[in-house]
Amino acid sequence: xxxxxxxxxxxxxxxxxxxxxxxxxxxxxxxxxxxxxxxxxxxxxxxxxxxxxxxxxxxxxxxxxxxxxxxxxxxxxxxxxxxxxxxxxxxxxxxxxxxxxxxxxxxxxxxxxxx
Length: 115
Known about the structure:
mainly beta, 7-stranded antiparallel sheet, elongated
């Protein structure tokens, strides 16, 4: 990848005891000949209150760095997570879903997903 650019924006604040953080980003770059250019974006948010946090995000990689001579390749993912902290202790859980759709490839219409 050459001539790459990454842009990001984030806001963090608190309103009546509820913490809020939201953000997003975009990546672009030129790929080597024969591959699709880098073009990806993401967004996420997190909310907190009284030791609890809940957040999630989404990413979309599109055809990034795929062989330019193949059909559409779409890569997306989303995640959710929650935590609770009190004093020096805390616990949490998270979940990630990643999907690879490869139209026209040996994987068929749905390349698969990971949970």
